Amino acid sequence: MNNKPLRPLYTLPYAAWIILFVIAPIALIVYYSFLDLVGNFTLDNYRNFFSSVYLKLTISSFWYAFLITAFALLFAYPTAYFLTKTKHKYLWLLLIIIPSWINLLLKTYAFIGLFGLYGPINAFLELTGLGKQQILFTDFSFVFVSVYIFIPFMILPIFNSLDKLNPTLIDASRDLGANSWTTFRRVIWPLTLNGVKSGIQVVFIPALSLFMITRLIAGNKVITLGTAIEQQFLVTQNWGMGSTIAVFLILFMFIIMLMTSGKERGASINGKVK
């Protein structure tokens, strides 16, 4: 039975979903970005975005997103590597992923309790004689909590890449006289680079648009593009400027996806690399 005439019908739900929930919202954001406070057409929003205030905000957002991604990668890669060497690796991976299922707001408030002046961390510091420290509302607390929240999403793609790595390639590298560092640099890292890129995508892109953590953990001392969008829509009621920032945020995300996407550099099939 030939189902070719019906194939276009199978794609209708998918196409309708894309149009209604992806293309239409983006088109609406672009439309509002050309409106001023009274609904008149203007290009001032785009001119204002390139002012010193918003340029500094953009640089700050990229800096914090870079820090969060760098620390997440620094801890995620060795963690994923050692997970692949454990006996019950999938169980340990599940235990790492389970906290990501907890509501983000609950985890944020948990850290407020931990880092607060009367929390357990400050209580421990008092016992050691260091006294209470202002941990909340600092860059450290913001980056620390963000890394904690995003690190499972960095571990998972790296773990999958390492788990699929053909172990005979590592044995061959060592048989040829390469030490552990050379084997990692010339064999393991290149063949798992796509997992690293996927991890960077799922961490760096959301980190650009954080807003709730900046309010609750950083006390608005850290302002990101996401925080600016929230303030424009909810505080100043300037939907045009908020939409303009959102347009540039979408462009930044698209550029990052292009930069971190790539074809498979290597895959193990029957002990061969292709």
Here the CATH topology equals MetI-like fold
Q: What does the average pLDDT come to?
A: 88
Largest β-sheet summary: 2 strands, antiparallel
Order of secondary-structure elements? HHHHHHHHHHHHHHEE
What's the domain count? 1
How does CATH name the architecture?
Answer: Orthogonal Bundle
Tell me the helix content: over 70%
Treating each run of at least 4 consecutive H or I residues as one helix, how many helices?
Answer: 14
Give, in spatial order, the strands making up the sheet with the most strands: 1-2
Sequence stretches where pLDDT stays below 50 over 5 or more residues: 266-274
Main CATH class: Mainly Alpha
Beta-strand proportion: under 5%
What does this molecule look like?
Belongs to the binding-protein-dependent transport system permease family. CysTW subfamily. It comes from Sporosarcina limicola. It is a multi-pass membrane protein. The chain has 274 residues and is an all-alpha fold. It has one domain: MetI-like fold, CATH 1.10.3720.10. The protein contains 14 helices and two strands; from the N terminus they run H-H-H-H-H-H-H-H-H-H-H-H-H-H-E-E. A two-stranded antiparallel ribbon has the order 1-2. The two termini are 38 Å apart.
